[in-house]
Prior knowledge:
The protein is α+β, with helices and mostly antiparallel strands. The protein has two domains: 20-66, Ubiquitin Ligase Nedd4, Chain: W (Single Sheet); 75-111, Orthogonal Bundle (Helicase, Ruva Protein, domain 3), CATH 1.10.8. It contains four helices and six strands. The strands form two sheets. The chain has a three-stranded antiparallel β-sheet with strand order 1-4-5. α2 (75-85) crosses α3 (89-98) and α2 (75-85) runs parallel beside α4. The protein starts with 6 loop residues before the first helix and ends with a helix. The relative contact order is 0.11.
Amino acid sequence: xxxxxxxxxxxxxxxxxxxxxxxxxxxxxxxxxxxxxxxxxxxxxxxxxxxxxxxxxxxxxxxxxxxxxxxxxxxxxxxxxxxxxxxxxxxxxxxxxxxxxxxxxxxxxxxx
Length: 112
């Protein structure tokens, strides 16, 4: 494919063109997307600078985790579920959290 190139020659050519690279000793890199996060443990991370522009190259194995969504359950929601179903407050709160704050789904589940 490509002829073998001497590393020193390659680095010298890159330096002449104004390109520099450096390895970044990262322990962990986390990328957040809309609905998940990608966690890289002990990744290989390289910073390349060319014409004042920095770019980063990331390599390694990762695991995906779903983003945790914080749900605010207020006392009025809990009281409404308790009034409609007769369930105790703790059970109503836990089911509201499980159902991501959906009051109707929680009431229906408790009435089954």
